[in-house]
Amino acid sequence: MTTDAPQRGNPVISFVLWSLTFSFVWWAITGAAEDSWGIGLPVVALAALWRTVARTQGGVLSLPGLLRFLPFFAWHSLSGGIDVAWRALRRDSRLAPVIIEMLVRLPPGPARFTFVTAASLLPGTLVVELADNRLQVHALNRFGDFQRDLRLLETRTAALFGLSLPAPDPHTAVP
Fold this sequence. Notes:
The protein is mostly helical. It contains 5 helices and 3 strands, in the order H-H-H-E-H-E-E-H. A hairpin with a 2-residue loop joins strand 2 (125-131) and strand 3.
């Protein structure tokens, strides 16, 4: 179960500790080469900043989650592009547009941002609005199973950030 504000400690202390950790890793990888710090300092600072922000905003990337998310994301991005191109080239594009809504279970922060951004790349979809936990998506064909696709994307995004999702509540589902 996730919370809306998963704050974990003081971000300044976290940044300093991650900076020291990544500095040590950089030092070890480069064999203590002094001339490598021109590149190393910005890399260490960005990595420490990313790690600190990710921890305070709701999750750290999970390697197994990333390995499952990337092929899923690539396939749906490609098939979404092909779908739109195919509809543009056909005379009868068989459009039956609809706005669908769903309740987002991901906590605010990087995981939710990634999900909402990726949702527009599903075939025939475009995110219209995210207000609180309600996501509105424009779909080109009302007969597609967009709710299922969005739930699958939400699950993959949660795994990407090492988060667990609460089960969908059928009493609060958006029709």
